[in-house]
Amino acid sequence: MPRVINFSDAASIGIHSSILIAKSDKPMNAIQLSEKIGSSKHNIGKVLQRLVKDGILKSFRGPTGGFMLKKKPSEILIYDIYRSIDGELEQGECHQDAHICPFDKCIRENIVKEITAEFVNHLKANTLQDYL
């Protein structure tokens, strides 16, 4: 069934993994996270490396290694995680070269733009702390 708002699998992995990491008092590795969220450890590792690169997580190598938050949970917006993985959300601008809507209001520029803005605002209004 089509959805207006949809998280990619990678964004879902990133957000769920970050919440689990925030709840843990020691580093969590990709195997542990895989057991909890049901995704492959390889996919989790790839996604979390993006979060490391963007300064949301830090990683540790070795047998006791894994991932930990680089900041406090209250300082990490859910949108920061989403954007790190999926990039900035487009605001629903009409991409038609010639404006073809015969109506006074464009569905794409009004409804989709408004829903996208609300979605972004919701992600920006929530931190990891809100899910602990």
Question: What this model shows, in words?
Answer:
By secondary structure, the chain is mainly α. It has one domain (9-131): Winged helix-like DNA-binding domain superfamily/Winged helix DNA-binding domain (Arc Repressor Mutant, subunit A, Orthogonal Bundle). Helix content is 48%, strand content 6%. The protein has a two-stranded antiparallel ribbon with strand order 1-2. Helix 1 packs antiparallel against helix 4 and helix 2 (30-37) crosses helix 3 (41-53). The longest helix is centred in the last third of the chain and has 19 residues, at 107-125.
Summary of the model, kept short:
This protein has 132 residues and is mostly helical.
Topology:
Elements: H1 9-23, H2 30-37, H3 41-53, E1 57-60, E2 66-69, H4 78-86, H5 107-125
Antiparallel strand pairs: 1-2
Question: What labels would you give this structure?
Answer:
2 strands, mainly alpha, Arc Repressor Mutant, subunit A, 132 residues, two-stranded antiparallel sheet
Question: Terminal Cα separation, in Å?
Answer: 31 Å
CATH architecture: Orthogonal Bundle
Share of residues in strands: 5-15%
> What is the CATH top level name?
Mainly Alpha
Tell how many strands the DSSP assignment holds. 2
CATH topology: Arc Repressor Mutant, subunit A
The ordered H/E elements are HHHEEHH
Task: Provide the low-confidence segments as ranges.
Answer: none
The CATH H-level superfamily is: Winged helix-like DNA-binding domain superfamily/Winged helix DNA-binding domain
Rg (CA only): 18 Å
Order of strands in the sheet with the most strands? 1-2
Number of domains: 1
